[in-house]
Automatic annotation (TrEMBL):
InterPro entries xrefs: LRR_dom_sf (IPR032675)
Signal peptide boundaries: 1-19
Swiss-Prot/TrEMBL keywords: Signal
Listed name of the protein: NB-ARC domain-containing protein
Lineage: Eukaryota, Viridiplantae, Streptophyta, Embryophyta, Tracheophyta
Gene source species: Citrus unshiu
Length: 129
């Protein structure tokens, strides 16, 4: 997937993909995908997000129905302009990191259909949520 500097949205929902494209795994991919604002990865069979996800600057992140997702990378707090995080249907996800409280731009968090047993404490700290 060479340089995609003008790509606004990447949708991989419902595919049989078992690994993210190399451009999403690279340590410094933000230059090649600097315009990406929407990453839709519904229902794919991937177990974890790469740590490099923090390099994206503004984003709607949709991870709906990731059956194998057990945790989010600690670097997710680097998504300073993250507006929407959809984790609905991530049935193995047991908790959301409290460091998401550093994502001040978060406006919507969907944790329905997860195994999260209590509201994360950061919910009370994020002013736009």
């Amino acid at each position: 997937m060479g340089r995609m500097e003008h790509l606004l949205a990447l949708r991989l929902l419902g595919t049989a993909i078992r690994g993210l494209p190399i451009c999403l795994k690279q340590e410094k991919f933000s230059g090649s995908m600097k315009s990406l604002t929407m990453l839709i990865l519904d229902g794919i069979a991937i177990r974890e997000l790469p740590l490099s996800v923090e390099l994206l600057t503004g984003l709607v992140l949709n991870l709906k129905d990731w059956q194998y997702l057990e945790s989010l990378p600690s670097t997710i707090n680097g998504l300073k302009l993250l507006k929407i995080l959809n984790l609905s249907g991530c049935s193995k996800l047991e908790n959301v990191l409290d460091n998401l409280g550093k994502v001040e731009s978060l406006e919507e968090l969907n944790i329905s259909g997860t195994t999260i047993g209590q509201l994360p404490t950061f919910i009370y700290l994020v002013k736009n949520l």
